[in-house]
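Re-run requested by the PI after the first attempt was lost when the workstation crashed. Everything re-entered from the original request form. Ligand of interest: CU-O-CU linkage.
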Amino acid sequence: MALRFAPLMVWVVACSTAGSTDPQSPHGFRVFEAQAGPFEAPAAVDRDPDPTVVDISLEAVPANITLAPGLTVPMWTYNGIVPGPRIEANVGDTVRIRFRNFLPDGTTIHWHGVRVPADMDGVARLNGPVASGDTTTYTFVVPDAGTFWYHPHVRADEQVERGLYGALIVHGPDDPPAHSSQTLVLDDLLLDQAGELPTFEDVSPIEAMVGRQGDVLLVNGRAHPLLELSATGRHHLRLINVATSRYFRLSLPGYRVTQIGTDGGLLPTPRLVETLMLVPGERADVVIEALSATPSDTPLRLLPYERGHGTGGGSSATVMTIRSTAEVVNQLDDMPERLRDIEPLPEPALRRRLVLGESGGAGHGGHGDHGAPSREEAPEGAAEGEPPTFSINGKSFPEGEPFMSTLETVEEWAVVNDTEMDHPFHVHGFRFQLVDATGAPERAYRDTVNVPAKTTVRLRMRLEDHPGRWMFHCHILEHAERGMMGEFEVSGLSPLRPSPAP
Ligand code: C2O
Ligand code: CU
């Protein structure tokens, strides 16, 4: 009972202060002392001596995870840790993952952003979930260098929130020189008063509408970790937003922050950035350098961002602290001005239009300012509110037919956001280039992009190498699981496999 009531209470409190706070973090964020200690998740153990094969075991298993001193939470994990082990490979390696499911529910592992064959993509409808107690093996080649991640594709809103996620790093020959390299897996967790995750059944309409936002910010599974870095060094950070719905808009005052990579690996040229926005599912590679050689502590700040339905009212918060030290480092070569070449994709052979829709739930039907009912209506109003549904071209997945596509063609998709909030749009199996208003493709590869409310984003992709059935969806996982998802079928013979004997 306590579990079921908790999210409603959070929501009721939010109503009295609508507009000034995040609907689901009415008191802002819980504050923690900076925690020293190992910063990254341990790397996965590669059991194959062949340097071009990465062979690891992953077990999905419930475990108690200590997020901060005195705060231990029952979660779902890979190998008993959150995040799961960091998988490291070199571009072109074969990765083999022997997976066993010790969870009470079926699950899969999806390799977000990695261009794998369709039957290795870990999406339940195509590959079937791995039942409780069962095993499977995923094998694929990693064709692109970059920062990727892995997570389930079954009830992902619940399973990812419970802690099932990990980084997958693919190293390439062009990675620029740095004194250190760290992966930052960014998450937020909502805890109830018992210090546990609130129920995933009967969630409030506001949670269904905007997604679950937590009050505990996590980097690599810890609340407010401390990272020590030489004040005179150049440091490579790989950031991954694994939160189900939170947008991480970040700033690091006192540092020069240069973005060198997106979802799909290195940019052609480094870009200086003031703030960095990572929507759910998205990654960025940056290089940071302290502006002052004097050792000091700097907070990595989360800035408010309005993505619709009153989500932008929160105050800023500290995600982690970077402590610059007096450690002396050797001189590195200058940052290269060119990181790599990316050819813009040609004019598409086919254009599609995908209209993102939302209906029902909080925010529609005459509720108060920010889609929250008045105090008097709650909690009954919360329990009885019509849950929202989400759609693409009017179909709420699994309704609707897949798009039919042809291998090796270039398609351009106009993703039209007809709703009152932003949606981070993600495509499986292929990488895309954004196309601007003049029709010019961006020289960067991505697989996840924000589509702000009431705008259209165009993305162009070549359907390379991997025929089969693929998914696309909003990466606010509460939206994906409520219908904002679809499929496309790419037909043709894979150039990467021998053609069948006549
Ligand atoms: Cu990380 Cu289908 O997504
Ligand atoms: Cu969405």
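Saved to the shared folder this time. The first strand starts at residue 53 and ends at 68.
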